[in-house]
Specification:
single chain, mainly alpha, Actin-binding Protein, T-fimbrin, domain 1, extended, cell projection
Length: 676
């Protein structure tokens, strides 16, 4: 309790409360001050509850707090068993009630703030069934549920975006970059519009471009439809081929077999299916049902502690021991007259197991065959999707090889032709380059002649004038055609406008009447809405009170049920322990030596004697080790010194060998020098 109060005081002294309490001042708060403090904490979680409790009645305060605590899923602690006592303590401001509530609220403020925010939009308003019979109310209720689902999805997306790590600064930078790109695109569009407006007949060109784009889209959709139809056709051909193969197999079987063999196969298949239906599948269903029953039984039971598990394990061991005893008694009282029946039973059980195993193997083989067929179909469909072909037969493969050879010879001929064309293309490139150089030289000579004569640029100006005159003549022709088309379009548009006006006149009159009717219906709907809202408010208050009462009763029932289950489990544990104690006492008092040996006391006595004997042996061994410790240590020291001495001799020997080898090398080097 002290740790709880310490935690509450620390949280209240922090932001956003800043109460500056200590343990003494907090413990000396009156009931009204505690209620106001609880109201402030609830107001921090839900701003609607930030009110002064002196301005409302105690019943309203308690009802408001209980409603919010129910939304926040607060459960009273185990010490407050009676819900009415909890309500009474909340009304009177009892410390035993308010302190746990404050501790629970301050532990998870952020989580509860989110839960209160979501409850404002996700607490569903229950509409009575008689009101839902009205179409308008039903439509509004459906729209209300759709909006609630949309809010759930948006909130989930919002939480995912918060977790994804995208910061507002990055989003703002992206938005600003996108706005800049948008402005640049708008400027480019404006420049292109201005450039296009100078072109004659640009509207018609734009219309033609739109038609071209729509036709391209239509072409893509048609190509997609064509591809889908091709795939459907391929699947249909595959099914047809499979059916033909099956038909051929059946015809082959019918041609090569007799009615007796067909009947025998059918009988075998019928026997196998009847075995599956009558024996195998029902036994499997029974085993599954029993396992499901035991699992449901385990789930329905309350949570088990370690003591319960140990008790169950001990009970299981006892049952196994009893089973072993019964088996031993049965083996002792075994009569030889039943040997034949037991032999037949064993043979029947072996045959039934073999039968089950073969049935499982047959079923597995059938499943494997079906899976292989599905894989074959998938592979064939993948091959078709990759523009491949089906698996060829032997004759088709020979034809394919012959076609491939002819295509190979044709390919080699074409390859030679391509080589000749490539060589000729190189020659033509060289010729073009030479002609271009000659043309440039002639142009330079012509320019020099024009400069000498004083008419430089004459040839270039003459070419430009001829090109401009040709372009001007073409533009004049286009202008004349454009003016004629525009005059015809204006006439057509005027005629269409007059026709539309004449056809829309009666429709406009009807629209005016419908607008008046719509205004009247809107006023009537507003009046009905006001009545509905008042009725909903009254029903909501009654519903919330009933829900709180029902929730309290359900929680009380659940707590009583858990207490009953706990007491029942404790009772069973005590009964098991009492039974074990009785059996132990019975075995200990029993005159039979075998029964006394099974007693736990006798077993532990034997174990204690064995451990004492083992301890004596270990103490004797320790004594021997202590007596021989000094001599052993001395011997170990001598061995270490001997090892160091041998290592020193080895090092000296290695050094001597190295020095001898170095001297020999030096002598050989001196001899070589003398020879030189």
């Amino acid at each position: 309790m002290g740790d709880q109060i310490q935690f509450i005081v620390e949280k209240l002294n922090q932001e956003p409360f800043r109460k500056n309490y200590n343990l003494i001042s907090f413990d000396s708060l009156e009931s009204l001050q505690l209620l106001q403090l609880l109201s402030d904490v609830l107001g921090e979680i839900d701003p609607k509850h930030a009110v002064d409790i002196r301005e409302e009645l105690p019943e309203q305060t308690a009802k408001r707090m209980l409603n919010l605590l129910g939304i926040l899923k607060y459960k009273p602690p185990g010490t407050v068993s009676d819900l009415s006592a909890f309500r009474q303590g909340l009304v009177t401001g009892s410390k035993a009630v308010i302190h746990p509530v404050l501790h629970w609220l301050l532990q998870r403020t952020n989580e509860l703030r989110t839960r209160a925010y979501l409850a404002r939009f996700l607490v569903k308003l229950e509409v009575p069934a008689e009101f839902l019979q009205d179409d308008a109310v039903a439509d509004f209720n459906k729209q209300y549920e759709e909006l609630m689902e949309a809010f759930k999805n948006l909130h989930k997306e919002h939480e995912q975006l918060k977790v994804s790590g995208l910061s507002t600064a990055e989003i703002r930078r992206d938005i600003s970059a996108m706005e800049e790109e948008k402005d640049q695109l708008a400027k480019r569009v404006e420049r292109l519009k201005k450039r296009v407006e100078t072109v004659q007949n640009h509207q018609r060109m734009l219309e033609i471009a739109r038609q071209l784009r729509s036709e391209k889209e239509r072409e893509e959709s048609l190509a997609q439809q064509k591809q889908e139809q091709k795939s459907q056709l391929f699947h249909a051909e595959q099914r047809l081929q499979r059916a033909q193969v099956q038909l051929k197999e059946m015809q082959h079987v019918v041609a090569d077999s007799k009615p007796e063999s067909l009947m025998k196969k059918l009988e075998e298949e019928i026997n196998f299916n009847s075995y599956l239906v009558t024996e195998k599948i029902p036994s499997e269903m029974e085993s599954k049902k029993t396992s499901v029953y035991y699992l449901e039984k385990v789930v329905a039971e309350p949570a088990m502690t370690q003591a319960d598990l140990t008790a169950l394990e001990s009970e299981l061991d006892e049952v196994n021991a009893q089973m072993n005893q019964l088996i031993e008694k049965r083996m002792i009282t075994y009569e030889p007259t039943d040997s034949k029946f037991s032999m037949y039973r064993q043979q029947a059980s072996i045959i039934s197991r073999k039968k089950e195993a073969k049935a499982e193997e047959l079923q597995a083989a059938k499943e494997e065959m079906s899976s292989l067929q599905r894989q074959m179909e998938q592979k064939s469909s993948q091959a078709h999707g990759l523009e491949g072909s089906e698996v060829l037969s032997e004759d088709e493969f020979k034809q394919y090889v012959s076609r491939l050879r002819s295509k190979n010879t044709f390919y080699k001929k074409k390859r030679l032709e391509i080589a000749e064309i490539t060589a000729e293309y190189g020659i033509l490139q060289r010729t073009e380059e030479l002609l271009r150089q000659r043309h440039e030289a002639i142009q330079q000579q012509l320019q020099a002649v024009e400069e000498k004569k004083g008419i430089s640029g004459y040839s270039y100006t003459q070419e430009e004038l001829e090109r401009v005159s040709a372009v001007k003549s073409e533009m004049d022709e286009v202008k004349g055609q454009t003016l004629d088309n525009m005059s015809e379009m204006v006439k057509k548009l005027n005629a269409m406008v007059t026709e539309k006006k004449a056809s829309l006149a009666p429709v406009i009159k009807e629209l005016r009447q419908l607008r008046q009717n719509c205004q009247e219906l809107t006023q009537e709907r507003d009046e009905k809405k006001i009545q509905y809202d008042s009725c909903v408010a009254g029903l909501e208050t009654n519903r919330s009170a009933l829900e709180q009462e029902v929730k309290g009763l359900l929680e009380e029932c659940a707590q009583e049920e858990s207490n009953y289950q706990y007491i029942n489990c404790m009772k069973r544990n005590l009964e098991i322990q009492l039974q074990r104690a009785k059996e132990e006492m019975k075995a200990y008092v029993s005159p039979e030596a075998q029964e006394r040996r099974r007693a736990v006391r006798e077993q532990y006595t034997r174990i204690i004697l064995e451990q004492e004997n083992l301890g004596k042996k270990l103490r004797e061994k320790q004594k021997v080790v202590r007596e021989s410790h000094g001599s052993n240590m001395k011997q170990m020291k001598m061995w270490q010194d001997f090892q160091q001495l041998m290592e020193c001799k080895r090092d000296c020997f290695l050094k001597q060998q190295n020095q001898a080898a170095i001297g020999q090398i030096i002598q050989e080097g001196g001899k070589d020098r003398l020879v030189l």
